[in-house]
Amino acid sequence: MPIDPHAPIEITAFEWVPPFAEGFVRDLRPRWACEEMDLPYRERLISAIKRPDWYFEEQPWGQVPHVRDGEIAIFESGATLIHLGEKGGLLPRENGQARASVLSWTLAAFSSIEPMTFELGNVALFSRGEEWATLRKPGLVAALGKRLDRLETALDARDWLADAFSIADIAMVTVLREVAREGLLDTRPRLAAYVERGEVRPAFQTAIADQIRHFAANAPARAPQGV
Amino acid sequence: MPIDPHAPIEITAFEWVPPFAEGFVRDLRPRWACEEMDLPYRERLISAIKRPDWYFEEQPWGQVPHVRDGEIAIFESGATLIHLGEKGGLLPRENGQARASVLSWTLAAFSSIEPMTFELGNVALFSRGEEWATLRKPGLVAALGKRLDRLETALDARDWLADAFSIADIAMVTVLREVAREGLLDTRPRLAAYVERGEVRPAFQTAIADQIRHFAANAPARAPQGV
Questions:
Q1: What is the pTM of this model?
Q2: For chain B, how are helix, strand and coil distributed in percent, rounded to 5?
């Protein structure tokens, strides 16, 4: 079991998040990677409601995850995946097509899919009910849908984006889980099956259970505003 | 001069784009990287107006850049920067803090700044005049402004994000140039100076001149719709 208080790898995560964010916070990515590669890690939990001032020195936006590996500090979930993947094997270190494909698809998740899913989250969740969001949603869903159709074509009959399971799949499955909530995979069965292949992996299951393990004990007495 | 028709590195770019996109297409990133590291590259130009069907087999969204390096094919500008940076020295290969910082800031450009600048481009350019865009713009500009304030604080008095100039600066400067057009750097002098430090580099100047070199010869007789 990778969680080990004495491990050299440390993942910073939130001690509690509101229900809508449960299971979707981005420390899930390095946790999942560590589980897949059997890399022990320790947790450092901070408040999502009142981010500590000192934390912005380590992570410029006050977001999670932040990862330490011995003396090395790294932030942005994509960067943590690259670092951990090189360490544990989910990103081939040898300079060849296998490495190039994993890097291409990892960056595709962050640069070509997540910006649109991020905006869909704004429209469907954070700004829900605002006039601009109501007006914006159909066009955004259509544009994202076209992008997802291309992704489904590119995935073709493969199980994973870059042949073998890799950090690219950790990136893309965690991105696509968010659009699954909005029904965008209902008409895209190959993408839906791809996400499910990711979610049934024991490493994913352990990672998500560990992410939410401390939430009940740390829930505020009253739900905070504006989190 | 890195452009060399016999070079093993190939960068796919557009033969022409409309004026608003001139100097902002993302093949600028690997071109700039190649210039900085004196890596010769050849160009492969395709139509932006009618993307060739075969091209979607190489780049799932039909976008540029796509890069070949001998037998290796790679897409997404961030992935091309990582590949080229490791080859030529703008991303340290040794596993240490220098590498981790470059990776963190490179992914920060793509995951934490570009999604918001991308949406600002939608609001201020592509969907300009639509009701949702008019309603959306103030909140988006405010949110992006807060993010940029954090970035300015994090950059502090350094010239470059990860101490030495790196692929992280190629990523971040090319992202920030787009918000400069919208005036968002006018009140953020350290970020404005940072972008200028990038833009005055001879490698940037050569890269952008090479990017637009073929446009005049390939301009369509009549401006196309919907590009």
A1: 0.96
A2: 55, 10, 35
Query: Contacts of residue B115 in chain A, CB cutoff 8 Å?
Result: 114-115, 118-119
- Ordered domains of chain A (ranges, CATH): 9-91+204-218 (3.40.30.10), 97-201 (1.20.1050.10)
Mutation site for B-interface testing, chosen from A64, A76, A140 by largest number of B Cβ within 10 Å: A76
- Token representation of residue A2: 């990778």
- A 24-53 residues with CB < 8 A to B: none
CA B19 – CA A206 distance, rounded (Å): 51
B142 vs A: CB within 8 A:
no
Measure CB to CB from residue A132 to each of B79, B87, B136 and give the nearest one: B136
Question: Which B residues in the span 88-127 are in contact with A, Cβ-Cβ below 8 Å?
Answer: 95-97, 100-101, 103-104, 106-108, 110-112, 114-115, 118-119, 127
Sequence-separated (6 or more) residues with CB below 8 Å from residue A168 = A101, A102, A103, A104, A105, A106, A108, A109, A160, A161, A162
A with B: how many residue pairs have Cβ under 8 Å apart?
134
Residue linked to tokens 């070949």:
B68
User: Which residues from B are below 8 Å from A174, CB to CB?
Assistant: none
Please name the residues between 157 and 196 in chain B that touch chain A, using a CB distance below 8 Å: none
pLDDT in tens, chain B (227 residues): 699 999 999 999 999 999 989 999 999 999 999 999 999 999 999 999 999 999 999 999 999 999 999 999 999 999 999 999 999 999 999 999 999 999 999 999 999 999 999 999 999 999 999 999 999 999 999 999 999 999 999 999 999 999 899 999 999 999 999 899 889 999 999 999 999 999 999 999 999 999 999 998 999 887 666 54
SS3 at position B14 = strand
